[in-house]
Design goal:
By secondary structure, the protein is of the alpha+beta class. Helices cover 45% and strands 9% of the residues. Strand 1 and strand 2 form a beta hairpin.
């Protein structure tokens, strides 16, 4: 049976047998690695570990007895051969975590176009909300709040999309009114002259 290393609070722990993982803090989103794996993966994506997260009906468990420990036996540390060769475990690094897009550029573009093109406060509001959510994406991911980071990323994208749609509708309405109404055309041109 494989022994797994786990990454918790940016620290590598282990190796542990599969039946020891839950007791050592394993969750579905915990990163794990064992010999034979190319890189660190979330536990819920590893077939051998995904069964640990299926709810089971309670069963009677016999009380466990602790054995007395005699002496100070410690397991010898594995040392890699000085001649190279052998398999080296990939280092547990924070950049192994998934990155989430923040859509900051898109939201800033919406804000700038809203202010300078048609003075559209509705698109501007969506751009600001998207910008705030976008700036919180990396912060949440660096703190290990991956669900929050993913949620903020989705929200920043939604705000950018809504802001873009409102901006396009506003421009289309201005063009339609400009083409169809001479009074609107005069008022619009007068507003442009006063602005600049």
């Amino acid at each position: 049976m494989a022994q797994y290393y786990i990454g918790i609070n940016n620290q590598q722990l282990g190796p542990f047998e599969v039946d020891q993982l839950l007791a050592n803090g394993l969750t579905p989103d915990t990163l794990v690695w064992c010999n034979g794996m190319a890189s660190w993966e979330m536990a819920k994506n590893v077939p051998e570990l995904s069964r640990l997260f299926i709810p089971q009906q309670p069963q009677y468990q016999q009380p466990q007895y602790q054995q007395q420990q005699y002496g100070g036996y410690q397991q010898p540390q594995y040392q890699q051969s000085q001649y190279g060769g052998g398999y080296q475990q990939p280092q547990y690094q924070q950049h192994a975590f998934q990155k989430y897009p923040n859509y900051i550029g898109w939201n800033v573009a919406i804000m700038v176009m809203s202010v300078f093109c048609c003075c559209n406060p509705i698109s501007l509001i969506f751009g600001i909300i998207g910008l705030v959510n976008g700036t919180n994406v990396n912060k949440a991911a660096n703190e290990g709040n991956y669900e929050v980071a993913q949620s903020k990323s989705r929200s920043a994208k939604s705000m950018a999309m809504i802001g873009t749609i409102v901006f396009i509708v506003c421009i289309l309405l201005i063009l339609v009114f400009y083409a169809l109404s001479p009074e609107f055309r005069e008022a619009f041109n007068e507003g442009i002259r006063k602005k600049y």
